[in-house]
Amino acid sequence: MSQRLLKVRDSQGHTHQITIPQAVEFAVGFCKAGDRKSAELVYREAVRTSPAATEDLRALGIASFHLGDFQAALDYYTRALAGAPQDASLHSNIGVTLARLKRFDEALAAQQTAVSLGPDRPDVQAFLGDTLTQMRRYEEAVVHCQRAVELDPAFAPGPLNLARALEFSGRLEEAGAAYEQAFRVGPNSPEARFNYALHLLRHGDFASGFREYEWRWRCTGFPSAQPNTPRPLWDGSDLAGKTIFVYVEQGLGDALQFVRFLPQVVARNGKIILGIQPELKTLLSGFPGVERLVVNGEEVPPFDCHCPLLSLPRVLGTRIDTIPASVPYLRADSGRAASWQHLRQPGRLHVGLVWAGSAAHANDHNRSLSLAALAPLAGVENVAWFSLQKGAPAAQLAAAPPGMLIQDMAPHLHDFSDTAAVLSNLDLLITVDTSVAHLAGALGIPVWLLLPYPPEWRWLLGRDDSPWYPTARLFRQTKPGDWPAVLDAVKTALDDLAAGRPAPRRESEPERRKTVIARKETDLERWSDASQLEAGWDRRAGLAADFIPAGSTVLDLGCGAMAVRRFLPPHSSYIPCDVVRRGENTLVCDFNRNELPPKGEATIVTMLGVLEYIYDWKAFLRQLHSYALPVVMSYCLSDFSGAVDRSALGWVNHLDLKTLLEGFAEAGFSVQSVQRIDALQVIFRLTPHSPAARLSRKVLVLSYKNVGNFGDRLGFHIVNSILPAGASVTWAEFQPWKIPDDQFDLAIIGIGNSMFQSILTDELLALTERVPSIGIFGTQYRDSLDPQKFQSLLDRLSVWFARYEEDVLLYGRNRNNVVHMGDWLMSQFGMSQWTTDGRLTVDEKIWADLPLDRTIQTIQQYREVVSHRVHPLLCALSSAERVAYREQREGGLGSGTSGKFRSMLLDVFGRTFPEESLFEVKRDAVAAYRARVQHSLTALPPVLNKMLGLPSGVA
Asked: Which CATH architecture is the domain 334-498 placed in?
């Protein structure tokens, strides 16, 4: 190893004296954190030392690769190889880099050498698989990627590259599972998160997909960086009096597609500066609402906040059915368009052609064609052909297919305004997936797209139309590489169009749905289309999961995109059921044919977005009652749907709240709780009638900001598991204070969260004065707590189940209503053993978008965990070898530190440890603490039953 030392300074001015490999670790870390400026500073200083040692050269190759300079990376790796010719990882790195340079044959040779030198290395197997995927040798790629996963399931590129190989080979269901595995083992891997985003978006899950899409900035080789500015990213709030800088980040087609969202930004009262590529300046001049256009590289005027163009759908909450798709939203210059009217030939169909995109595009080898491949179209009569192809592929016009006389327009196309003018004089554009397709769609011109398999995410799956462009028709490969079948379908359609024959009339979607409803049939065509699954209803699934106790076996009726599975609490099992097969284990039943699956091992039923599509809904509820299981279901009530056209959505019943509640009662269900999901939907938890369940009691559960983070979400699961079956639950929150005007039999103050001064309010004291209450909370920022108010709160509580012994010593002495229960979340973390010899850092935002079981699994994988939050650290104690913490410090809350970590460590180990210093975890102490918490937890249900006046045996 090289001992050469160098001094490097990052963008914050901190100086570090380190070796070249250590410097590269800094640079790569900065890259992954999105701090490209610091990465380049460190990298340049390392290069300046003129390194010669093998390890230095290897390290600089890694840094060059992460900074996107693939030729430099190849040079460093090749020089390093001279000193270590038998090093498998160097051969593998050379192969990966050659693939990025699209030198695939050389890449494959290098990867094969790597595998021969290290056949049991997961990295070389995974990277060989990825190279084979790029060469379209998908089945071979799957074999090598599966081998990588077998060798090390925790090596994140293994399942990620396997997912890509499976997806390109057409095995979408298996690909989805592999993407989810990559997401689990690499929750902080930009490549894993970004590729998972593309998978979600391709399947129509815009809510989750666009959220994960934000990881693109940290990916190796991403073509742009966010502006280096202290101004904040826009969060969607009102922009009155503010200027926002919106800027392009990727290709020309992306810019043309996503400028459609700018009017929605204007509607938030913003003044827009638009950063754009020079090719689009003339076309977008005068775009409505844009105050100023700035070409890339020009100085940007002052602004108050900024937003990348492709982040607008996330900020604006866009779903498939809310895409702003009115066309044209771009228009050709009328003067330029008029200058090309001479192209029109009487009696001819005027068709433009584009057969290749930019060779720099990562997927160009899959999406682009040769002009010769379009030869089947040459035989179509009455067509005048026009080539809009630019770049090197335009040279193929010299050998155009026989019979295809094509006028070359490229010499006249200097920018996209020229292209728009020509398109305005054509009847149709036939094109591969490139920027001109987006231009035609935005202009409202008919465009036929030739799509590879799998397609780019924006074209979704399994449909021949596009929610982005009403004038688009999609011709898809049904298997990878099958362009002949696509061109045959295009030729047939073009023959009909050129001959003036109308296309075979297809029943419109509203007409088709009316026919289905008239027959009282389930709409199998709709539910067989994966893009119709509304996978974006993650909020609905997440709320449903909060009503499911840990360890449940869930029968999910109408499972759809199986969103519920992604949010299940720890140690739960999942049984999917739907009208069509969603996966290998799906139980197939048509509920409109009185078919229900067997109950099996299920302990609870979920049914989200299903009842609206059932004709005899009362009979269905009676069948459901025969399971004798609790049910969590949603429904869009007619009381709330207002002007929504329910029939157009395919809904076959239109129930108001009163009618639905009466139906529940007739079928034998009690409503345990009701909660609004959004403006349309309500979620219900139902229990089948039993003598005990008829003793209905109203319980108010009060938490901080209603399931805001990891700890709160786990607390919700525990509350649900201990509440009596006869309890009708209302969820409320401290901030903002939102308590329904109702009479309650019991209030549960806290779900394991902390009490601090800003939520210790007069409203809380008044509530506990009028409603019998118990407390389940700890304390933090104790020096800011009003002692008189806090003691008044304890006076009003029947029992305070205190989180920490320090709580009891400080506030509970000489009280008989204070019990040291411990942190009840510990009951949710089974004693486990780490599997990844690495370190996980958990920051202030503990993956609120991940299912709880996956969050727990992720934390428990690592040998070392450093946490900025108390409950992830509590979880890590059940599995890690060493842990460390960083105290929470929130301005205006006491002395500056929360005190929670100190109290927890005293409870578990009987001592404290210095902040930000790793310490060994004593498993015996953790197991003993967990046992104490579980024992204390058993005291809660009897207390609840007694306070609610229910028999002690009611669970």
From this structure: 3-Layer(aba) Sandwich (3.40)
